[in-house]
Amino acid sequence: MGEVFAGRYELVDPIGRGGVGAVWRTWDHRRRRYVAAKVLQQSDAHTLLRFVREQALRIDHPHVLAPMSWAADDDKVLFTMDLVRGGSLAHLIGDYGPLPPAYVCVLLDQLLSGLTAVHAEDVVHRDVKPANVLLDATGTGRPHLRLSDFGIAMRKGEPRLTEADYVMGTPGYFAPEQLLGAEPDFPADLYAVGLVAVYLLTGRKPDSRALVEAYADGIPPTPQGVPEPLWQVLGTLLHPDPDHRFRTATGVRKALAAAVELLPEDPAAEEEAVEVFDQVGPLPPGFGPDGPERPGGPGVPGGHGSGGRPASAGRHGAPQPPPAGPPAPPTPPSRPVKPPAPSPDTGGFPLPPPVREVPRPPEQAPPAHHPGPAPDPAPTPRTVPGGEPHRPPLPYPAPSPPPEPRRDPYADPYGDPYGDPPRAVAPPTRPYTAGHPPASVPVTAHPEPAPPPSAPPPSEPPPSVRAAGAPGRASHRAVPARKPGPPPAVALPVLALALLCIAVGLWALGQA
Predict the structure, then answer these.
(1) How far is the C-alpha of 331 from the C-alpha of 5, rounded, in Å?
(2) How high is the pLDDT of residue 331?
(3) Are residues 104 and 221 in the same domain?
(4) Does 30 reside within a domain?
(5) Which residues contact 123 (CB under 8 A, 6 or more apart)?
(6) What is the pLDDT of residues 233-291, one digit of tens each?
(7) Of the listed ranges 80-84, 218-222, 438-442, the one predicted with least confidence
(8) What share of the chain is helix, strand, coil (3-state, %, to 5)?
(9) What's phi and psi for 211, nearest 5 deg?
(10) For 353-407, how does the pLDDT look when each residue is reduced to its tens digit (9 = 90+)?
């Protein structure tokens, strides 16, 4: 595929070449149509200045082909314009030779109309010639002409980019005053229009030097092949003295309209109609009327082709079936999973908590000095009125819920068959306070092993006991509180350094 310029313009194929660059047929990914792009070949300051002048020209007229946009990528620059497919007037003369006078008058009127718009912007074209006058591919219909190539155009009063001894333009289409170093002006463009008209009527490039010599005794006689009424207009346009020419393109259009009324009828012109062919040619492989024919073209979001069709679409946009292949093996049925029961607090379905093994405390034998019955390993719960199971009281109040979800460390290590299942949010709330059973139900606490005599029963389990999850375990020590401030190993050197700084400061003050 073609090179993508500045992420937007995809160069397709070259369709022309000028003095400072090549013209390419280009696909504009943003406007989604084909345009003509003039790529600058040279990058010197002089050429860049002319490029900036040309791309800055914005003239909206049906018979003017002005730049639309421009872009720069690394060391290359280009500007774009509409793609005109019918070639130039030079192509038309090459196909047909001399053209009928009535047909030439239609072309001249359109060319003068475009020059009127250009001169209204105070711009002098300075390079009006058959190769810079393009045609739409209208076939045998009415021709449509567009003036192009504003590479050396300049506004009146702007500084010139050439030296005083050089003249910009095409040899053979210079006005005589340009060769003498005069400032560019509108009559110079009108002189070039006269030369283009003679070229269309005779099929040959006029000899500008011989024309100047022929005006030594006034307007020369009518050339062969040019009607007399039309020569009266063209003879005035080709006068060597700019003061004897038409001053404006509008004045030339009026004189040309009057001359058309006086033209004799030409039966030969009616027999053979002039046809403007498509001179650009077919698109190269890989490109279609809707753009590049490939999926995922550059600058096209969504993985679609540049023509706007999805990657699975065919040439005409119809979706294509997926490629045939062996059928996929059937998926084995999975075992049914029982959904978790809804949470009684929120009504949702909580995730199961992480599996964490709770250490089971070893059974402790009763001390020798405190005989008594052995603790019941599996106390039989009793039911209070209302259907709620009774749980044996704990030796201390229930701790507050931990910040992270975990099992209740103070739950019965042997499991409570009547308790709520553990949740991931917080431990279940007990229906009654452990230390205050209902007054209407007599409760008998099961005996618990007494702590050693030297350790009084704590009012609240220490952190080490809560972390271990064993309520009857007493092998712990209180962590001493840390005193505020740095340790002595750090404080003493810092204090000595401070005293030394004070001493140095006092000595410095004394020396001052």
Answers:
(1) 50
(2) 52
(3) yes
(4) yes
(5) 57, 59, 150, 153, 154, 155, 156
(6) 999 999 999 999 999 999 999 999 999 999 988 766 666 789 999 999 899 999 999 99
(7) 438-442
(8) 25, 10, 60
(9) -65, -40
(10) 555 555 565 555 555 555 555 555 555 555 545 555 555 555 555 555 555 555 5
- The helix/strand/coil state of 229 is helix
DSSP 3-state assignment of 88? strand
Structural domain containing residue 116 = 85-282
- In Å, how far are 127, 186, 230, 358, 396 from 412, measured between CA atoms? 103, 108, 119, 11, 14
1: its two tokens: 């595929």
Q: List 33's β-bridge partners, or say none.
A: 28
What pLDDT does 103 receive?
Answer: 95
pTM: predicted TM-score of the whole model, two decimal places? 0.57
Burial pattern 17-46, b for ≥16 Cβ within 10 A else e, equals eeebbbbbbbbbbeeeebbbbbbbeeeeee
Centroid of chain to Cα 40: 25
Alpha helices for 367-475 (secondary structure H): 463-468
**106, 220: one domain:** yes
Number of domains in the chain: 2
Q: Which residues contact 15 (CB under 8 A, 6 or more apart)?
A: 23, 24, 25, 36, 280, 281
Tokens of 70: 């421009």
Residue with tokens 């999926």: 295
